[in-house]
Design a protein that fits this description.
Elements lengths: L5 H7 L5 H7 L7 E3 L5 E3 L2 H5 L6 E7 L9 H14 L4 E5 L4 H5 L7 E2 L2 E4 L1 H5 L5 H21 L6 E6 L3 E3 L9 E3 L10 E3 L1 E3 L4 H8 L3 H10 L1 E5 L4 E3 L6 H7 L7 E5 L4 E4 L14 H10 L2 E5 L4 H16 L5 E6 L1 H7 L12 H21 L4 E6 L6 H12 L4 E5 L1 H4 L5 H13 L14 H13 L3 E4 L1 H12 L7 E4 L19 E10 L4 E6 L18 E2 L5 E2 L3
Parallel strand pairs: 3-16, 3-17, 4-15, 4-16, 8-11, 17-18, 18-19, 20-22, 21-23
Antiparallel strand pairs: 1-2, 2-14, 5-6, 6-14, 7-12, 9-10, 12-13, 14-15, 22-23, 24-25
Helix pairs in contact: 4-17, 7-8, 7-10, 9-10, 13-14, 14-15
Amino acid sequence: MPWLSDIEIAQNCTMHPIGEIAQKAHVDDKYLEQYGRHKAKVELSFLADSPRKEGKLVLVTAITPTPAGEGKTTTTIGLADGLRHIGKEAVVAMREPSLGPVFGIKGGACGGGYAQVVPMEDINLHFTGDIHAIGTANNLLAAMLDNHIQQGNALGIDVKRVTWKRCLDMNDRQLRFIVDGLGGRTNGVPREDGFDITVASEIMAVLCLAGSIKDLKERLSRIVVGYNYEGKPVTCGELKAAGAMAALLKEAIKPNLVQTLEGTPAFVHGGPFANIAHGCNSVLATRMALRCGEYAITEAGFGADLGAEKFLDIKCRAAGLVPSAVVVVATVRALKMHGGLAKTELNTEDLAALEKGVPNLLRHVSNIKNVYGLPCVVAVNKFPTDTENEVSFIIEKCRQLGVNVVLSDVWAKGGTGGVELAKEVVRLCEEEKGDFHFSYELDCSIEEKLSTVVRRIYGGEGISLLPAAKKQVQELTALGFDKLPVCIAKTQYSFSDDPTKLGAPEGFTVTIKNVKVSAGANFIVALAGDIMTMPGLPKSPAAEGMDLDDKGVISGLF
């Protein structure tokens, strides 16, 4: 059989009409808003009307990512398909891809090989327009903010302390720092400004954490857009923008229903980045997945120090969710990269490199098991170059932590390659009871919460607050925001804030350069190291390899 790319596999599959997928998920047709034959939104009233009890929640996370790849999304999808193979009703809940990575270096976020959600091209590109709606709502607030200043500034907004940025769902470094409002009095008030990528917008976080339209409007109203000349926060509610923004988000708040290659129902909704936001799909989509199946399989972005930490400390706290089990995805190849090997050196057995790299996996596993108190399994995403000695080494190291290791072959085999992982997940959910607790308590100070995450989750010694960040912490504390959870924005490539420190580094401190409140999302954002909220394109972006033929068939998407 010739080797097929991800997009060719997706294009060759036979998709079921979305109504059939909805029936499989126990969603009556009256709750569906169809977007063509294979996509639909589900009305929020489904949650209120459904008599079904919630199933078990399974979180899929991973080791610290490397260029070798880990396959977290692929494993998430393959696990759900595997559960269906053993007779369990499983439903996927995952994030929507951002156009920035799709056209940049990472590519899409629909899984890979024979474990994908489809229609792959639609989901990776415009999908149902959710991210566009979020960007438009974000920019409406920006426009109303600047218009208020232009029209007399009744709220006394200090133009040097405007914190709200415009956004665009594309990697565009040129827009990070700009000056706008030029051209004279009739063209606005000149000020320094900038753009974030849409998935880093607080509107994205608000939509993903909102539990209802009422909750959405209340969260939008609380958003802080800047400060007045007295140093008091100015909110979206004071600008009277929340109602119009909610109207723009009327459809976007409804979760999207699609399917895997094997016809497993999948909710794909919301897309906050885990390195600069909280990195989880929407609460509403997760709730629907729990109501639609015995097992809801969800993922959190990047490594467990980012996505899983924020899923557990922010999303679960906000929504009252408790996972029944956690899957930590790893590859032999990635662990050898953490052990110092170059990507070109990964195809031969190297137990010495694996021994240097495996502490990365063990720290993530220990955090899930010992910090959060949750049952855990390691899924080793199988590659042809893996040797029996290398896999046995990982099994033995994890056994010392009391955690089982299962080989996953879902990329090549789809659901059948995830059956053994599915069986272990079911065993964990049925036989092992977790003792879930958060990594920090809310009554700690902002600085204490940040230091606790660095010590308990990252394995570092603490934080170093730059003078500007220290002043921001003092101001936010004086304003009463100090009891919120924290969302640390840092590099995804290391436990530390230095992307070159691979494996499981120790003895480091994390430098916090900026601290701000996301009052609508209800958390404090702390920017660490050199993290950017507007990424840039690489030297050779993925967009260069994409095309559309005369029949309308897309190629080069991955």
